[in-house]
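Table 4 source record.
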Amino acid sequence: MKFFLFMLLLSFNTVSSAAILTTIKPLTLIANEVTRGIEQPQQLLADGVSAHDYALRPSERLRLQQAELVIWVGGSHETFLRSLLKNNTKNLSLETLATSKRLTWRNLETNLAQANTLDSHLWLSSDNAIALANAIASVRGKQRPKDAAKYQQNALTFAKNLKASLQPIQAKFAQLPQRQYIAYHDAYQYLEASFGLQYRGSISISPEQKSGLKHLLSLKKQVQQQQLRCLLAEPQFDENLANQIFGDAGRYVIVDESFAQATSYSAGLVQMAEAIYGCVK
C-alpha cells in the first residue's frame, strides 16, 4: 500500500504542468496563434478522443488544477469537466464567452430551433474563433502583463489571416446556384452563414441519439422528392443507413470537425469548407 501511494505521488510530481491547458485540438490551434513566440499551450485530450464521456485520470486532474488558464468549449461539450471547473476562476469557456455566437439544436422533424438547447460545435464559427482569440489575449495579457501587447498583436494577426484564408473558398461557394445538404448528424450549422449552406435535415441530432424509423422514412421521402444528393458525415458514420435513405444517388463526404489533420485553425476550417464544396457543387 505504501509503495502504491509513493508511486502515485511520484506520478503527480512528474506530470508536466502547462500554463495554458486546452481540451481539444481546434481550441489548441487557436491558442497557438495567440501565444506564438511567447509560450506553448498543451492539450488535455488526445486528438480524436471524444470529449462527451471522457474519464479523467488523477494526473489529468492535477494538470487542470495547476494550469494558469484552462480553455474549453463548455459544459455542453466537455461534460466531464462541468463539476471540476464549476468553481475554477482560471478557465475560459467558448460557450459562456459574451462575444460568442451561440446556436440551438434544431428539431429533427421541423428543423426549427429547440428552446433551451445549445449546439456545442461553437469552434466551427470563424467569428467565434476570433472572439476566443481576443479573449485569450485579454486574459493572458492580464496574467502576464509584460507580454500583453504581443498577445494582442497575435490575436489581431490571427483574425486578419483567417478572414483572408476564407475569402477564396467563400467566393467559390457564392458562384453555386444552390448549396443544399443533409447532415448525418446536425453539426455544421455554424458554417452555414459563412458559406451560404442550405440545411435540409439530418439523420440524427447527435452521434449519441439514434433516430426512429418514422423519421428515417420521412427523410428518405424528402431526399427523393427534392432530389437531394449531398450528405455530410463524420468518419464513423453508418454507410448502410445512409444508403437506405439515398439509395445509389447519394454523394457522401467525410467532414473532419475535430481538425485532426490540420496544422492550423485556418487550414482546418478551409479543409472542411473544401470538402463541403465538393459535396454540394
